[in-house]
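Q: What structure does this chain adopt?
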Amino acid sequence: MENLDESAPPFKFLHTINRVTVPIVAKVNGLAIGIGTTLLLHCDLVYASDNATFALPFVKLGLLPEAGSSLLLPRLCGHQRASELLLLGDNFSARQAQQFGFVNAVVAADELDQQVDNVIAKLTSQSRQALRISKQLIKSPQQSVADRISHEAGYFAKALSSDEAKQAIAAKLQKK
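A:
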């Protein structure tokens, strides 16, 4: 069996994108085939135009899932749906991608840039620390609910006492 060089640029990129600590926002307008779809599994928010088309044709091509898709896809949409998408490799629409959990919203192609700009503006107005820690919690390995509650509580207590949180809460209370 031939080994791929994990220091090759595509692997370096995949490992880098997996370690990004800030939210990754993607937009899809047109075709997202193979790696174009599997990269979305590493994104936090994904928006697609109504003409976007997705596919994971690896098995059809005699290949195997890549970019962590065999782990991430079942987590995202369940075992049966992941099996259907990876084993059959059929194209699916933006609306289907939204139903499967790949895409947060589907908009007209001429509205896609504005939609993503609005989302990015919302994100950049948030606490960077809260965004980073929230992303870390969301991506952390599966653990028991009890462990997760305790883990979240520790971070929540720290965040609650931060200047950013105090300012944001005070601003909300002033609006009322």
